[in-house]
Amino acid sequence: MPWIILILSGALEAVWAAALHRAAQVSGRRRIAPAALFLAAVAASTGGLAVAMQAIPTGTAYAVWVGVGVVLTSAYAMVTRVERPTAARLLLLSGIAACVVGLKVVA
């Protein structure tokens, strides 16, 4: 269960990163919704990380949390055309994903 919580918390990291980007883009009153999503996702993401760290070593948990967040945030940016999906970028993100899986295997 701690690993599931950790992976979901990493996914929420991608949510708060995207919400922060969106909050910075829009103007006026519409900025409230992405800002609220950002705050809720940050709280849930870090809370889930804290829970997972009770059973998973700190370094491993943090690396997996960040790795999941980086890969999903980058994937979202590519799907929404904020970033270009170059071969090098895809290869390097695949390497990060492989390292996250490797940390699970050896932990």
UniProtKB/TrEMBL annotation:
It is found in: Cell membrane. GO terms for molecular function: transmembrane transporter activity. It is a multi-pass membrane protein. The keyword rRNA processing does not apply. The keyword Acyltransferase does not apply. Keywords: Cell membrane, Membrane, Transmembrane, Transmembrane helix, Transport. Belongs to the drug/metabolite transporter (DMT) superfamily. Small multidrug resistance (SMR) (TC 2.A.7.1) family. PANTHER family: GUANIDINIUM EXPORTER (PTHR30561:SF0), SMR FAMILY PROTON-DEPENDENT DRUG EFFLUX TRANSPORTER SUGE (PTHR30561). This is Quaternary ammonium compound-resistance protein SugE. It comes from Pseudarthrobacter niigatensis.
